[in-house]
Amino acid sequence: MPRDEAEITPQLFADIFEHDRRGAAILEHLIRRFVRPAETRGGIDAVLTTYKRLGNREPLDYIVSMINRAAGVVDEPPTELAEPELEDPFEG
After folding, report:
1. Are 63 and 27 within 8 A, CB to CB?
2. Mean pLDDT per 10-residue run, the chain (92 residues)?
3. Does residue 13 lie in a domain region?
4. From CA 52, how far away is CA 8, in angstroms rounded?
5. Number of domain units in the chain
6. Which residue pairs from 64-73 have beta carbons closer than 8 angstroms and sit at least 24 positions apart in sequence?
7. Residue-number span of the structural domain to which 13 is assigned
8. Residue 32 lies in a domain
9. At what angle do helices 21-34 and 44-70 cross, to 10 degrees?
10. Are 25 and 19 in contact (CB under 8 A)?
């Protein structure tokens, strides 16, 4: 039976994939199977392989982020580094 989108909460992800040992085992299996490092040899083929691996990993990253939200961890976007202010050498 499909759930209403509002019923799919971070806590539900934590209950299934962290608190239930079966769900935790499945998540661990998926991570071992689909999380791979970037390919560094092979030119354009390496780039394509890396993109494929990142695509395979994306759903797992989402699951982990939902578990983290349930634990109170907030995913914050990276902040941009401020440009240093430089003195104008021509200013008197």
Report:
1. yes
2. 77 96 97 89 89 92 95 74 62 60
3. yes
4. 27
5. 1
6. 66/10, 66/13, 66/14, 67/10, 67/13, 67/14, 67/17, 67/18, 68/10, 69/10, 70/9, 70/10, 70/11, 70/13, 70/14, 70/18, 71/14
7. 8-70
8. yes
9. 160
10. no
CA 54 to chain centre: 10
Residue 1: per-residue pLDDT:
52
User: In this structure, what token pair is assigned to residue 91?
Assistant: 């200013």
Could you tell me if residue 45 is inside a domain? yes
CA distance 46 to 36: 13
Query: 65: closest CA among 81, 56, 76?
Result: 76
* Cβ–Cβ under 8 Å, residues 18 and 12: no
29 in a structural domain: yes
User: Which pLDDT does position 86 carry in this prediction?
Assistant: 60
* Tokens encoding 29: 């299996």
**What's the predicted TM-score (pTM) here?**
0.69
